[in-house]
Amino acid sequence: MARVQEAVNSSGWQMIFENDEHPCFVRAFRDGDSVRMLVYIWRLTRGGPTGVRPEGEFRIQITSVNPPLRTGRGFTTLLLGWHEDLEVFAGFDVSRRPERWGASPSVQVREDTLRLATTNGFGFYRRATGTGELAVAFAPGSFMDYATNQARFHEFAEHPDEVRVLNHLTREDDDIDRERHVDLDRIGSHGRRQVVRTVNERRGHENFRARVLSAYRRHCAMCALQLDLVVAAHIVPVEEHGTNETTNGLALCYLHHEAYDRGFVIADHECHIRVNEIALERLRRIQRNSKEQEFLQNLRPDLFLPERQEDYPSAHYLRRGMELRGWPTHAA
Ligand SMILES: [Zn+2]
After folding, report:
1. Ligand 1 centroid to 243 CA: how many Å?
2. Which of 39, 49, 83, 110 is most exposed by smallest CB count within 10 Å?
């Protein structure tokens, strides 16, 4: 459940627990929105003995809860698996769980589907046999996208042609920087078209995040801190038509991300790190500069750079990034 809370937060929502049992009622908030959810969650484990289960299949075993799964008005029931190493969830169709079940029923997802979610935000697996159920793998940042649309996601199971559109959106290839073109006319309902749009947007976002964090090996480019306190920042923000290229990204710890976006510290086009002396002087005057020396000492003189040169931040974007954050670039 701690993973659920982290995921809800990384989706940009706040969350509170209503009880500490399993299944757990939680409530997520964002702006004026509030969503109540009942979460069933188990670890994803490899299915059965080798040779019996298909290779590369993971499953959750529904144990220690009595059937049927609780559903009702005013809350959304989620049936989830969590893969600790890959750090992704799998969501299964609650409406397909029977009223009664045997000793420990299980539901499956494929490993390659989980891997797609780590780099694209989502991955989909529709079993060709049996009931044709759709399993949805998703990254923590996609948690609320899934939670608020889960019935629509699982509806795709009834439309195998449309699942192909989802798979097209999340397949792996080198064309990672652009949104993919999708023929929305091929999608039969408004709700499912909305899901396709969401998946396409998440893909660009998650893919950027995965590439940037991996290029910097999860170090902050300004202080080299790791500790999983590092995010992927855009040099030229998306709102300013910044792209999702790795060269428009910097891995930054929370402190330096905020400081960078406010223009308090900046990296110039030659990757030198510079501190806004005017802002610093103002803080000294009003005596709000405690720990200033520690802050300055923790900053590297130059950016910590990725291993591969093609991942280096582009000089052009760094200049534009300075301009947008109120720095003069002519003297740089
Ligand atoms: Zn840092």
Report:
1. 23
2. 49
